[in-house]
Every structure is written in structure tokens, then in C-alpha cells.
């Protein structure tokens, strides 16, 4: 755990004694070429900016240890904790917006200059997290026994990693809707002068509810996202992303889709809670960490809503 906690100590030492700060200003800026990946980068940066400072890597190791105490599949818990450490190490230098040293603006994503700058940003944080992940795997392998057979129908393998992939598909659909469909609708209805949505800096960043009485655009945008997830889960048990990844949402109490209230509660907990400043990112971190500890591989919002994401409806829940 000390290896995973070292980057957090370094981060706080830098924040308390940041040293000299260099500010630059560009006059007469023209339009920048915005990458299609910019919304995703901005939202990930919002989540990642305080991840190391909040000692999440160390908490991840502790959660992996606790999971080994209460779960029979020690190797599975260890792999997830190690995978989380590696993911943080890779995303931490990849999500910031790097300013171009030769021109006003930022370095284009996935360009050769961007890769070179990102690799230059690698430091002790990455190597500590990689080392912590390796130690977690070694410790898990040394202490684990043969895993108990798990019921394939109840929790088929691969759901844990299919879920973020499905969420990425849904995120892309939401960004495309706000970028193309919504402006076209406002133009055709003559409402373009009253409402406008800019998600180039990220969907969560654009729609965050920053005050008690937020702008109408933010409320409309958040309500649309609520309808996107709640409506599809209530009607079909899956969003377009889940449909593509062949997973679906079911109730743990009965066969088929959850009830309306359960689905609404689940949608309020995720993803709508993300749009609440401070609380949203913390809730997301707790949600992800819970998967490591949960014996049923369910997220915290699924536990609270009594729902589960599976590859198919278990045979035991099908009506006779």
C-alpha cells in the first residue's frame, strides 16, 4: 500500500509548494480544430484531476485486500485492483490538455506531438502505480487457492469490462446528439436564439448543476440524459450501448426489467449524480471501488436500486 500511496504524498507536496507558475495569454485567437475525442478527454480530466490527491490508488489496494477476505475468488479481486491501478497510471498523463509551445492553442489529441508530450509527463506516479499493481498480483497469487466454480448463468465472465465499453458507446451517442441533432432541431424550430448546447468541453462539464437555480439549458440537457437512460432501461432493459455489447439490466427480485421506480432511482444515482459538483466525481469513484468489494460484481448504484447487469437473463429467473 505504501507504494500506491507515494504518488498521493508527492501530489500534496507539490500542491502545498507549487513553486513558480508561468501564465501565457494569446490575443486574437481564431477557431481551433476540436478533436471528436475532446469531450471525452475533458470529462475524464475532471474525474482524474483529484484522483491521486484523494489517495484513490491506496484505497484501491485496501479494497482489493478486503475483497480477498470476503470473496472466494481471490485472483479475480486481485486482478481488478491491479487493473484499476494500471488504468489510473495510464489515464493520469493522458487526460490533461497540453498547451502547444509553438502556437496558441492545445496540442491536437493523438498527434505525434501529443504522444511525445504525454510520454514526457510520465514520472514516478506511473512507475509507483505499475509497481503497486505488480505487487498486488504477486500477493494475490501467493495467497489464493483454487477458485470456487461460479454460476455462469448468474454472473457470466466479462460483464465487468463490457459495462464501461457500453457506457462509452452511450456517451458517444449523447455527444453526437448534442453536437448535431439538437442544433438542427433548434434551427428548424426557430429556438436557436434561446437555447444552445456546447459539449466540446465535455458533457458533464457543460451540464454541471453549479447553482441552486441552474440555467434552463443545463436542466433540459440533464433531463434529456435522464430520459435516454431511464426510458431505454425501462422499456427494453438495455441502452444502445448495452445492446451492442449484449448485456442488459435486470431486477434481482424478479425476472425481466426492473420496476419504474427502481429504474428511475438507478438513473438518478448514475449517471445524473455526476452532474452535481464535488459529489458527482466522489460518487463515481465510490461506485467503481464497490465493484471490487462486492461479491456479486455489482456497482453501488445497482445494489441500492436492487438491479444487476448480466449478459443474459439467468434461467432461474425466467418464468415457468
From TrEMBL:
Keywords from the named record: Cell membrane, Membrane, Transmembrane, Transmembrane helix
InterPro entries: Pra-immunoreactive, RDD
Main location: membrane
Matches recorded under Pfam families: RDD (PF06271)
Transmembrane segments: 51-69, 81-101, 121-140, 171-199, 219-236, 268-293
GO cellular component, one term: plasma membrane
Domain RDD per the UniProt entry, residue ranges: 160-305
Subcellular location: Cell membrane
KW Repeat (keyword) present: no
Membrane-topology descriptor: Multi-pass membrane protein
PANTHER family to which the protein is assigned, alphabetical: PROLINE-RICH ANTIGEN HOMOLOG (PTHR36115:SF6), PROLINE-RICH ANTIGEN HOMOLOG-RELATED (PTHR36115)
Name under which the protein is recorded: RDD domain-containing protein
Lineage, opening ranks: Bacteria, Bacillati, Actinomycetota, Actinomycetes, Streptosporangiales
